Amino acid sequence: MDSDYGVPRELSDLQKKRAEYHPEIPPCLQGTTVRVEFGDRTTTSDPSSDHVIRRLFPHTYGQPLAHFLRATAKVADAQIITEHPIVRVGVVFCGRQSPGGHNVVWGLYNAIKIHNTNSTLLGFVGGTEGLFAQKTLEITEDVVSTYKNQGGYDLLGRTKDQIRTSEQVNATLIACRSLRLDGLVIIGGVTSNTDAAHLAEIFAVAKSPTKVVGVPVTLNGDLKNQFVETSVGFDTISKVNSQLISNVCTDALSAEKYYYFIRLMGRKASHVALECTLQSHPNLVILGEEVAAYKLTIFDITKQICDAVQARAEQDKYHGVVLIPEGLVESIPELYALLQEINVLYKQGVSVDNISTQLSPWASALFEFLPPFIRRQLLLIPESDDSAQLSQIEMEKLLAQLVETEINKRMKEGTYKGKKFNAICHFFGYQARGSLPSKFDCDYGYVLGYICYHILAAGLNGYMATITNLKNPSNKWRCGAAPLTAMMTIKRWARGPGASSIGKPAIHPVTVDLKGKAYELWRQNAAKFLMDDIYRNPGPLQFDGAGCDAKTITLCVEDQDYMGRIKKLQEYLDKVKSFVKPGCSQDVLKAALSSMASVTDVLSVMTSPSFTGHTPM
Amino acid sequence: MDSDYGVPRELSDLQKKRAEYHPEIPPCLQGTTVRVEFGDRTTTSDPSSDHVIRRLFPHTYGQPLAHFLRATAKVADAQIITEHPIVRVGVVFCGRQSPGGHNVVWGLYNAIKIHNTNSTLLGFVGGTEGLFAQKTLEITEDVVSTYKNQGGYDLLGRTKDQIRTSEQVNATLIACRSLRLDGLVIIGGVTSNTDAAHLAEIFAVAKSPTKVVGVPVTLNGDLKNQFVETSVGFDTISKVNSQLISNVCTDALSAEKYYYFIRLMGRKASHVALECTLQSHPNLVILGEEVAAYKLTIFDITKQICDAVQARAEQDKYHGVVLIPEGLVESIPELYALLQEINVLYKQGVSVDNISTQLSPWASALFEFLPPFIRRQLLLIPESDDSAQLSQIEMEKLLAQLVETEINKRMKEGTYKGKKFNAICHFFGYQARGSLPSKFDCDYGYVLGYICYHILAAGLNGYMATITNLKNPSNKWRCGAAPLTAMMTIKRWARGPGASSIGKPAIHPVTVDLKGKAYELWRQNAAKFLMDDIYRNPGPLQFDGAGCDAKTITLCVEDQDYMGRIKKLQEYLDKVKSFVKPGCSQDVLKAALSSMASVTDVLSVMTSPSFTGHTPM
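Predict the joint structure of the above. Result:
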């Protein structure tokens, strides 16, 4: 029903109130004169990928970072933009719906109109399919008014998250040309922004006047790197899920007779599960990244949970809450291998009914061991990126069942002496995605949309809109843009799916960093969480009063501000130059040389491709 | 871990803020002088049950309604209570946890202490088991402080929702005697309050000085009658679930490719499903009451959904949201009969593995037709009240599967010409129960707790604390107490479970009234909801600003105020008496006689046991 998109609709009281909220623009974007400061040419975070990316992206590799500064900022070599000719911009929802996505459109619309009322913003109706088919809806104040600060993507809709095949790319090129677009803004996650990077290069080759800009909007939190501290939607998703998990914890503690197994969305990475753990303090979380790092089998995980149940039973506790990320199934080595075999058989055209008979002996043995419901779910047709249909595989039920069997066994053997183990399973999936966005996501999405205009006004192509220093209030946010190529890496091997992208430059989903501060914070508290039931209930998402300005713990504990540090380094380098001007003393010069030699030695080792301590973020 | 109960705990920012909120006491309860006005002796709503209940409850049947009035109220025959001797009161969580339950304890505690600081409130630790074992925790300001306005029952915990066997009743009698309790307050739903009614009678027979008081706290909303407009917890549960359903609606509309089948808690009645429908406007809801009333089979329901899917496909719509109450399985005639057979076999001691072989031929045929996952779930051990384990039976999956099969069949036959049907299933169960209570439930629970003290101070036994006129602000609430026996009826037949209670007086769960205003409101809009996607998103539960004072639509559209009308009737009767005093004219007396004769004639017909138009609420 394309004709329904963008239609004003009836809002509830709370929605109306939210539609009245107006995010603030950071000082650097206020007014119509903007200064753009360009940094040094960028590289990629993985030196070994550098030459391949450079070769494949001759037009868009190595572009400098851009920082948007206050009109009054005194920066010698900043580009000052005061003229704002009429522009025509297209915007498309390209990833899965994420709270805050509507605000990107709204922020972009406002920025465009504030700088020239004759400019036009066209929304592609029905996602990428609308882009290919040139179905557009002109964004106006009327159109956007009932979607301000609202969840979902129903302003424009979305379809397939892909602009990749030459057919799709050509259709995009033709659409941008015939609609005479100066810019195309792509709203999405890792896949969509990888597509945006390729598109930008192809557009540059084709000398298309349309500049391509990406916006990091994905609730999984897996689009994250030096330039992107978090993505739009993660804050809301974490809060809605934490609310529900906390409610279940409270429930568990009240009746003291159930173990709740809860599966959370988040695809390949466990960011949502980790953030919810830090918010709600459930007894246990099984992070996919830990399972993968320590190569834990399904039996190891079952044993780990059983040991926890047993330890708690010894303290007369028969309740608990266990979180599981939906990507877990692909992190478990033997299940992953089984899925890969199934996937290969699918590609060979083997029908569902025959797959189980054609598995290798060991995979067949594992398959037969699994309960029927999981077997059926593992056999579901893989998704477009070759990963399994994670949302459909009920790992929480499999684990609950295996734990129950093992506890019953221990009971018979006399090693477990407690009461009967009772599990209840929940899947917290689609009920969070369409939520009203949190204040943070409203602000973040709106300002990113606003930045997109400035990227286009500065004539940049192949950039992503970025904001750093996000953990501080929005008037301290640093606005900028980073080349999409600087976020790309090449995987030569892969644990987990996405094998099709091996060897090709891509913006890869970032998994939970087991050396990171968020993970460390959990580890420090894991034993207490497990045994002491220090459940915490952040409550429902608030828009007024206590809790409305809370940000994710993941964002707050990680001291990211990469863009700020890049600028700080430039200041140090400038200072050295100002101390060591020709005419300075021989001693000062010697000291500088010696110190700088040491710095460059260390850095040269650290940035060599063979440096094993290197962990790309 | 009993020792953890009542322990002060760390609260999140929002929880802390909530703990600071103090519900207001309606004017009638302010101060320490309270007037109690007694109405006429009560009867039961079903005249045919009357004589049985009267016989079984000789001490507690027919007690008058009590209204608590302002100290300044001018009511001639009101009992005025100014003395407040020391009392010792026990309180026990007896039903399933429900948001707002903690506030009953807090309100009761405050009322007790305000009237005499030397009085004591003892909480039974671990629910009814704590009651039988006399495990208590003295409620103090310290103990209650971190549980004010908080969800769950973890202040005291709960166990089995039953005080029924003579062993349990005796243990309760002994506990109350040895703890020298003046009152026992039982917090729970229909089952717990039925138990409270029996307990009150038994205590009276035993000349126990302990008075028994019940409080209507159950999230299902099925404890509802002339005196009880809604129960504590229903407001919160409806709001949390509506939030999630609305998010799923937004999601469905954004991607336009899935049908979401959502199962909601609510046990035998569909109040939660109906309220959430009125809040969120999903496309379809299958109410158990409709299914039972029209004797719809599983195939009828499947056809109804398929027809909806087909009609929407003809408008190029391939998404939708379908709500299902968890009690649906017991409303479908053939499934209910199958469950009954299974139940009987269980009672005969047949083992799970053999049950399927001993079913009657037709039940066996139905059983074999069902997918394996449902078969397993139907075979789960029934609950203590003989009903199936509703939370464990995934009716949403069964329906989604049957609909898919039927749509595929129609596709082959060429009657359905749309795209493939895709369903995603969700169970919204335990994630709402532990929620922070809404402002309404905070207020309602607190004031009910407060009223309990006044019931005890007035020396009443076998009463439930009641508040009417709830849809108005709390300063307009009417506080009172109604005898538990006046809420009892006797079922002579039963559709649905609870067959064990047939023939015995009980406070029965009230199902959705298909002649009621809430249902009518849905029916009026059902066609629009089905086809036009006028989804509405009330958003997350708010404690400040827009939406924080919203009440359930069910409460607001139903014009209940029974207690107000009872008082109004008294006023009319008094007025007649004042007009027709001895000495009035013959004409006036004649007119009065004639009018009153007509009134009494009509009422005598309406209240006769054989009156078929009679529908107990």
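Confidence is low (pLDDT under 50) at residues 495-500, 612-617 of chain B.
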